[in-house]
Design a protein that fits this description.
By secondary structure, this protein is mainly β. Helix content is about 0%, strand content about 55%. It has one helix and 13 strands. The protein has one helix at about 130-135, and strands spanning about 10-20, 25-30, 40-45, 50-55, 60-65, 70, 75-80, 85-90, 105-110, 115-125, 135-140, 140-150, 160-169. The protein has a seven-stranded mixed beta sheet with strand order 6-5-9-10-3-2-11. A six-stranded antiparallel beta sheet has the order 7-8-4-1-12-13, with no helix packed on it. Strand 5 (about 60-65) and strand 6 (about 70) form a beta hairpin. The relative contact order is 0.26.
C-alpha cells in the first residue's frame, strides 16, 4: 500500500506479433460482431509459426504455454526499457475450422510472479490452402495495455494483470 492508503499499480504494454516460421505474413479478417472478437487471425494447420513478444517496461519471460503446450522461448534482446522474445509454435493438433466457426487459442506468458493470459481468435485452414489463409488484411501485431497490481494476493496468478486496452495493427 502506498502512504495515502491506495494500492499502487503500474501500466505495462505487451506487443504480440505472429508470422510463419519462414517470416511469411499472417493475415486477419474483420468479422464485426459475429464472434467473440471483431478480428480473426487466419492460420494454417500443421504449420510452424513464430510469436514475437515485446514488453514495456522490460520484463523477464519465463515460459510461454499455447493451448496447454509449452512453446520454446528465446530472449532476442533487452535493455532498461524493453525486452523482446520469440517463441516457436506448431499448429499440429488444430483441426481445420468449419465454416462460420472460430477457435480461441489461449496463450499464457509467465512473467515474474504473474501469468499474462490472452486469447487469439483464429480460423484454421488446411496447410496447403494459401488462397483463403492469405486473403484479408495483413496482420502486423496486437498491442495489449495492462495494469499490474504489485500487491496482488489473489490465488490466481492471472489476476496480477488486468487488460485495459487491445489494439490490432
Amino acid at each position: 500500500m502506498a502512504g495515502n492508503g491506495t494500492t499502487q499499480t503500474k501500466t505495462f504494454k505487451a506487443i504480440v506479433n505472429l508470422k510463419k516460421a519462414d517470416d511469411a505474413l499472417v493475415y486477419l479478417k474483420n468479422d464485426g460482431s459475429r464472434f467473440d472478437s471483431p478480428q480473426t487471425i487466419k492460420l494454417q494447420s500443421n504449420s510452424n509459426y513464430k510469436i514475437d513478444m515485446s514488453f514495456r517496461p522490460a520484463s523477464t519471460l519465463d515460459a510461454v504455454v499455447i493451448d496447454d503446450v509449452i512453446a520454446p522461448v528465446e530472449l532476442k534482446d533487452r535493455d532498461h526499457s524493453v525486452s523482446n522474445y520469440t517463441a516457436k509454435w506448431n499448429t499440429s493438433g488444430f483441426s481445420i475450422s468449419k465454416k462460420s466457426s472460430r477457435e480461441n487459442v489461449k496463450i499464457a506468458m509467465k512473467l515474474g510472479k504473474g501469468v499474462l493470459q490472452i486469447e487469439l481468435q483464429c480460423k484454421f485452414y488446411d496447410e496447403t490452402d494459401t488462397k483463403h489463409a492469405q486473403w484479408g488484411n495483413r496482420f502486423s501485431w496486437i498491442e495489449y495495455e495492462f495494469t499490474i497490481s504489485p500487491d496482488n494476493t489473489d490465488a490466481d496468478p492471472g489476476a496480477f494483470f488486468k487488460i485495459n486496452k487491445v489494439t490490432f495493427r
